[in-house]
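Record type: monomer structure entry
Structure origin: computed from sequence
Chain ID: A
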Amino acid sequence: MTTVLPERAGRRCHNVLNPLHSCHYFSPDLGRELAAVGVTDPRAAYLAVRSAAMGAVGAGTVTAAFHSFRHELVARHVPAVWRTASPETVLGARARAVDATLRRLLGDEVLASAEVAEAARLALRATEACTGAARPLYAAHADLPVPGEPHLMLWYAATLLREHRGDGHLAVLLGAELDPLEALVTHTATGKGMTPKWVLATRGWRRTDWEAAADRLRERGLLDAGGELTPDGVALRKEVEAATDRLDAAPYEHLGAAGVDRLTELAGGLARKALAAGVFPADAFGTG
C-alpha cells in the first residue's frame, strides 16, 4: 500500500541517507583497503568499488552507468583494474572500508544502538518498492546479499536508494538534453554540486571541456556570462530535480509518511555526526 507524501519528503530523506552511503569514497580506509588488494590509484579505486557489483565490465559500461566521468579517464583504469583485483575481491575490500569508516565517524556505541537498527529496518523496507528496469547500478547492487550487521545493513539500503535515484536522474538529464559535463556545470552553478576544481580533479575533464560546456549552455540561454544560471537555467534545474523526485517516489511512498519522517530523523542525526567529524573535504562542494 502506498501513500502520497508531502512535496520533496523523499528528496529530504535521500539527502540525509546519501552521506551515509558516500562517506567511504572520501575515506582513507577505502584507499588502505584497496591498496591492500593492489589497487593504489584513487580514481581506479573509486571506479572499481562502484562498478564491481556489475562484474568485470568494460570502460564503455562504466562510463555509461556513471555518466559524469570522461571516458578517457575510465578507459585508463577499466578493465585493467580487474586484472589486479577481481570484482569479488573489490567488494570485500569495500565492505571492510565501509565498516571501518562508519566505526571511526560514528563510534561503536552508536553503531550498536537501537536507533541504527531501526533506521536499517526502515531503509530496507523502503527498498522493497525500488524497481530495476533501466536502472543498472541499482539492479547490480540489489543482487548483492544483505549484510547482517545493522550499520552495514543501513549502508547497503542507503546505497540501493542512492543508486535507484541516481539511475533515474540520468534518464531525466537525457530528457533535458544535458550531456554529462553540461549536467555537472549546471549542478555546480546551483551551489549544491561539486566545485569545478573537484570535478576536474576527479572526473577526468579538462578546463577546456568545462569552458566548452559552459559556452553550449550560454547558447541555450541557460547560463549567463558570469557562469550563473539564468532564469531559464534555474527553471530547468528545478524541473530536473522534480522529475527525479517523481521517478524516485515509489520507495518513500511505500514506506509511508510516518516511516519517511522517522527515517529522515534517524539518518539525519547520523549524517550530522558524520559531517561534524569531517567526512567530506571542505572545498568539495559549492561554486568556487
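Annotation 1: The radius of gyration is 19 Å.
Annotation 2: The chain is about 70% helix and 0% strand.
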